[in-house]
């Protein structure tokens, strides 16, 4: 199933931008970048599963000296990222890794920033319990976690509309990629288990999409214990 999952995203790569625009227009692009201005200057960043590189390009433009590691298990998506950034003046600052992020071990390197945009929704609650700690632990003390993803609106017509969108998307990606996740996990509950402080939050597209910027409190906790 892993191979099918990877090859599914390779197949979708050339059409992904068109599919996104047909369903959401510019809303996902806007959501990816809505809080970039709130991120302090970073020397290093880990970007997880950014697909064709729209957020990577914007991040590199706003953080021109940042050394960025972009991890994706789809070789074709990484090729599209490299093509997108071919003429970017800071392209040399990016390292691309063709790798399943579930195999990432954050113990060797710590980053000022970890970015997960429309990435965590691909995983089941069990997978997140197993692997999200590694991605969060890749943050240095005081570093920032930038999260953008879908969410279920809380009530009314927004909730009904949101459930319809999410059901259609999960069915489509299960069909194309063998996506193991059958429903959206409540990421607020998951992220609240970590030592993260929410700095900024923005709901978009009738509350179907959220962008959040967190700060890793490990540095503050260690100082309190001194």
Task: Describe the structure concisely for a colleague.
With 226 residues, the protein is of the alpha/beta class. It is built from 8 helices and 7 strands; from the N terminus they run H-H-E-H-E-H-E-E-H-E-H-H-E-E-H. The protein has a single domain (2-224), classed as Vaccinia Virus protein VP39 (Rossmann fold).
Structure description:
With 226 residues, the protein is an alpha/beta fold. It has helices at residues 2-24, 27-33, 54-62, 75-84, 125-137, 156-177, 187-191, 218-224; strands at 44-48, 67-72, 94-98, 111-117, 139-150, 196-204, 209-216. The chain has a seven-stranded mixed sheet. Helix 1 (2-24) packs across helix 4.
The name CATH uses for the topology is Rossmann fold
Mean pLDDT: 85
CATH class, named: Alpha Beta
DSSP summary, beta strand count? 7
Helix/strand-derived category reads alpha/beta
Number of helices: 8
What amount of the residues lies in strands?
15-25%
Shape: globular
SSE order in H/E notation? HHEHEHEEHEHHEEH
Q: How far from one another are the termini?
A: 48 Å
CATH architecture: 3-Layer(aba) Sandwich
**Sheet with most strands: strand arrangement:** 3-2-1-4-5-7-6
* Number of separate structural domains: 1
Radius of gyration: 17 Å
The poorly predicted ranges are 1-7
């Amino acid at each position: 199933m892993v191979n099918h999952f990877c090859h599914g995203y390779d197949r979708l790569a050339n059409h992904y931008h068109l599919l996104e625009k047909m369903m959401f227009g510019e809303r996902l692009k806007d959501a990816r970048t809505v809080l970039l201005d709130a991120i302090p200057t970073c020397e290093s960043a880990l970007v997880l599963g950014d697909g064709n590189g729209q957020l990577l390009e914007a991040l590199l433009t706003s953080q021109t000296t940042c050394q960025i590691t972009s991890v994706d298990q789809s070789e074709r998506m990484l090729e599209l990222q490299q093509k997108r950034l071919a003429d970017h003046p800071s392209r040399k600052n990016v390292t691309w890794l063709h790798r399943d992020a579930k195999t990432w071990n954050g113990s060797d390197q710590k980053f000022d920033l970890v970015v997960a945009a429309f990435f965590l929704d691909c995983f089941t609650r069990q997978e997140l319990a197993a692997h999200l700690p590694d991605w969060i632990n890749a943050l240095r003390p005081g570093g920032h976690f930038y999260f953008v993803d879908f969410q279920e609106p809380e009530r009314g017509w927004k909730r009904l509309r949101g459930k319809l969108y999410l059901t259609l998307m999960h069915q489509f990606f299960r069909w194309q990629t063998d996506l193991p996740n059958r429903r959206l996990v409540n990421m607020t509950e998951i992220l609240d288990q970590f030592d993260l402080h929410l700095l900024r939050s923005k709901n978009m597209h009738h509350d179907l999409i959220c962008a959040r910027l967190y700060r890793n409190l490990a540095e503050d906790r260690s100082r309190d214990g001194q």
